[in-house]
Amino acid sequence: MFEVQEEAMRTARRIPQDIYRIRGNETDWQVELNGQIDRSYASKQAAFEGVVAAASTAMREGHEIVILVPASRPGERAFAEEDSGGIPWSSLT
Known about the structure:
Elements: H1 2-14, E1 17-25, E2 28-33, E3 36-41, H2 44-60, E4 64-68
Parallel strand pairs: 1-4
Antiparallel strand pairs: 1-2, 2-3
């Protein structure tokens, strides 16, 4: 029994684990990968989308993935505002 657990622990340690953590404020967001700042983004949304793309690649390579995104603070926008220059959807009703 003990040998089986020990082998499982050795196998689990060989699996790479990538921990992505998004940190920042309204205008400057950083992505940490395993405790090291990897990239900076203008919005939390852009940081998250960058993490998902990177994590997708790591997942295909067999890595264990953890993504940590902080909750929005009072008054903070969760997504960047975009101005496409087009007609707003709300005016089409």
